[in-house]
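Lecture 7 notes: from sequence to structure.
We start with the chain below.
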Amino acid sequence: MDFFEQQDAARRRSGRLVGLFLMAALLILVIIYLAVVVVAVQMGWAPHDGDSVRWLWQPDLFFTLLVGHTLIVGLGTWWKIRELSEGGAAVARMLGGRALTSADATREEKRLINVVEEMAIASGVPVPQVFVLDREWGFNAFAAGYGIDDAAIAVTRGGLRAWSRDELQGVIAHEFSHILNGDMRLNIRMMGVLNGLLVVATIGAMLLRFAANVITGERGTRQRDRNSGAIGFAFLVIGAVIYVAGWVGVFFGRVIRGAVSREREFLADASAVQFTRNPAGLAGALRKVGGASAGARVENVHAEEASHLFFGNALRQKTLGALLASHPPLDERIRRLDPSFDGRFEPVELDRNEVDDVLEGREDPATLNAAIQPVAGMAALPIAAAAAASTPDFYREPGAGARFSPTKTAAGLGAPAPAHLRYGGAVLDEIPLLIREASSTSAGAVSVIVAMLLARQEELRAEQLLLLSDAMDVPTVALVQSVDPHVKSLAPHLRLPAAELCFPALRNLSIEQRVSLLQTLDRLGVIEPQLTVFRFALRKLLRRRLLRPPGELGSVGFYAMRPLAPDLALLLSVLARVGHHGDRDALTAFELARSRLIALHNEPLSFVPEERCTFLALDRSLDRLSTAAPMLRRQIIDACIHCVLADHTVTVEEAELLRVLVELLGGALPPFLPALTEDQGSQAAG
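Predicted structure tokens for the same chain:
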């Protein structure tokens, strides 16, 4: 099953889940209706002529309750989803998460950050924000968000302390599979719907308290009349029924949630092993969960509503545990990874008082701040000294001597191989340490992004720096000038990964700060209007990730390809010209791409003249294409890949543009590796 099939399957599961939750809500409504109609008849509030069938059916009452029930469940669901509208970061903070930055991280926290960054580069997804649950000593982790653009990954303090790097890598690969398989949006929706069902029980509890006050005469002026007891009793019965019915709905909702979650956990385990090719790492992490006295438990008050997000079972085992469990049995998960497992767990205990070891691993924030400030002499350091030696296993130019299969590359969407993981680590090692440290803070990330978009010509550059001195404060401008030499020294294949490292910190900016940054970048662009492919791609990513609310990502505006034909023609014409020399080669690439658009076989698609292939026009077309239905976007991505790889080679510019296009269209494209070419069989997808 490929990337878009996984996403489509996730949407089908979401549809089935909505149907099951609607059935649970309908069951609640029927129970409440029957209770209310019986009480209404007994109290004389509804007509009763002796015909049981007729008096049981009170259409006015039923539809009143239907509207009220729908509003209550709907508002409860909407409120919870709105509460989590910031995406994965909001979920992590709700569960007690603390955002990590390299600038003040301990050694074990830096190890987590590095693993997450490596996997993001390897899989072609934006770098998620990273959190640690400091108060949680069970061994657990989770990924949350609406999609790949706003994902967050969190690990408990216990898991971070106990797991080795291989084990942590297996756990994070498991969480990345949830990101790539489209599980996160479904998980947030389940949290919302369960909250809506819980609101019904809460209203029942409120009615019970109201009834108790009426019966005991504690409401109003405490006047008792002969009807007060009957009214109080009626509300008591109705409140009790609503309370019980609400919890019945919650129970069935949790059963549904558990069944869906258990299925997804097995798939995530299998995907993690395919990614790392190291089942021992993931199995070892699960063994430690089984051997720990705290297991995978999470003590936060919100643990129950978010239990299906976690790597392991975050709740204490209760009655009907197998029915309600959000995860498969631990020994069964381990045996699927290691058939030789004998069912015994070695005890694992952590000394929670080992605070000194943690603090010793934390670098002095003052030292790190100095490292990215001009007063520390950063600009005077030899640029070569800030970068590790390059890894010889990978070419600087992805197309140098390598031939790629477009079909296999398209099949590799969302399916990174172990070689991609090694490549991710190699890329991180090549990015200068000072850029990596700077990108972990909001101010540093802004400075790196601004430096990437500065002009190379000295005259234009001086004018841009003058503009920056008016638009930004003095320390920020000084920081831009400090990181600029290191940014300029980046090899072409490191530019986009280095920019990606900045986005978790940029997400911490307020909306006003984000708008101000983008406006400043627009003003820089006016000074140097000549865009390069990289600058266009980076500015497009900035606008998408910093301005669009997480909940709006993935909204569908087009279910047919025909209205998008002009946009497709422009996109494919631009791609054909970026990587192919001469109109003949470009036209050949365009025609190959057009042949992949099954939905447009009977529609003309003309090669767009070069003068109309502008970045402004491409920007508008991409906005429209990104709202196409998922299976249409799958065809569009396939056509783009065939257009770029029509000559079976790829340049850095092509790779950068294609990587960004795929993300804008909802996919995830792993890096192009010469080690994985069209001659390498099924591993060529990449």
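Points to note: Residues 219-223, 355-399, 676-686 have pLDDT under 50 and may be disordered. The two ends are 16 Å apart (CA to CA).
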